[in-house]
Amino acid sequence: MRHQQLQGETPFSFPALDGETRIDLGAYQRLIVTNLDVNEAGRAYFNLGLRLMLSYQHEMASKCFLASLENSPDCALAHGLLALCHSPNYNFKGEAYYESACHYEDTDKPDLLCVFPSQQVADRHSRMAVEKIEELRKAHRKRKGKKKQRTVPSNNGEKLPSVISDVECQWLAAIRVLTSSPGVDPDLSHDIVGRPYSDAMRKVYEKFDNDPEIAYGFAESLMVLNAWQLYEYPSGKPLSPDVVETRAVLERSLKIHPHHAGLCHMYVHLSEMSAHPEKALAACQPLRGEFPHAGHLVHMATHIDVLLGDYESCVHFNCQAIRADRHVMASSPATAGKESFYFGYIVHNYHMAVYGAILGGMQGKAMELADELNELINEDMFREFPDLTSYLESYAALEVHIMVRFGRWKEILELELPKDQRLMLFRACTLRYARGLALAALGRVEEANKEMMTLDALRVDPEATMRILHNNTIFDLLAVDSVMLHGEIAYREGQYEKAFALLRQSVQMQDDLVFDEPWGKMQPIRHALGGLLLEQGLLEEAIAVFRKDLHFHPKNPWALVGLIECLKCQQPCCCEATDRNAEIAMLQSQLAICRSGELADFDIEVPCECCQRSPGQNTNETQILE
Asked: Where is this region: Disordered (predicted)?
């Protein structure tokens, strides 16, 4: 029987199971699901929904579970997983979720007419799941009672659907804990639903610890409570006992299910802030190749690549993720188009790819990606969809960051400012910041000061506190830019002590940003600080700055170039010369490997393009100081 919330919804609303628009996420399935296999389409949609959920394509997954219920209406677990799709996750959790996902008007609407995600839809389906459990138990008790009375059941000989399995019953009861309080006070959500849910999932895991979905659900529940605050960064010290427990659960479960998409995904997130991100490399391999159209999973492996200094892989696999998501956008524009929740993940792939290209010295690829992203998000789009500015406008300035990184000073000055600088606040501020750097580098200090004052006036707009670049507000990001620009201008004015104090301050502010991948500031400020210290002959501090940067960004060619030049300029005593030469040789070998990639096209001669090049070093026309 069709369940009541599907009224008015048709199979035409559901993702395709075959043909060119099919979403290929591998062949994984949960083998035993109560009352699912009564219908082939019900099983097929459930399988796809589970894969999509594990791939963090939650909106499309929710549609698949609806389609599964259309064909297998007694499958209680489809209700429960649909509810989870509308619930908090590692990237949308806590106050942000509970403040924006409560839609009282959705209470009586069909699912496909509701805003995604919706606490009301989550509540509805978790309730329907537990009601289905009781309905089937009651039906079986009634039949059992009739058999004892030797009466014939009045079901026309049809077989009753099975009683829901114990593992599903307990899992669904836990999901009900999470989803049964729509409209909960965001400030109290942790104590009222978040922590009780993880406690309930722990009990389920303790009984069914070999079940991969139960292990995944429990681990994710703990991680959502501590999202992006798992470890003290960069020490790697766990910030909560939850982190230790999560690691134990994931590592045990991955030994049993090493290719499970959800377990691998969570383990990457768990490891990226830790002292040993390389532990996640084994979990990265399935994510790279076993889920062809799971763009977010393919991308997730690059969180580890960039931390280990493999910038070529970072760019390569984000490009692969972008291709996968382009297919998904074409296949299901309603759940992967610009107004969808998943679109933020698509934009994030571009962000990470450009970040890797910037650190790896891949100018051509970086600009190609930024130009492609600008076709997707631009002032025209935000004028049409102004509600998207709060979390997407911060991605609309990637090519400006690239031009700063590669010293394209004259081209920066030719870029047009947005028509609506408040709508495009981050882009407008970033352009002012870039123009200030460019003018300072070109020796036009008075004009640079004017750009700096304009930036400082723009960036304090209260709107800046409402916009984010994933984990950081643009208010905080622009504050870092401002201090760095003040330092760069002071340097050009010959106020070296003031300049270095400001640049050191901006480095600390950059370090103090909320942990993110990629880091909120596209260019490490230590490259400018170290390069200008080297330029002034302050070698000891410059060496320390570059060594620290290589700790944060291993093998990046900018810091390698800076450190090599510092060591060459040193005058060590005889006993130190051999060690210094050995270190220089080792660093040069790392640099050669980094520059051997097919995408590495920029001739890196200085640690930052704000630095003067030595006589005889190559310069591009746009890098000549006027």
From this structure: 139-158
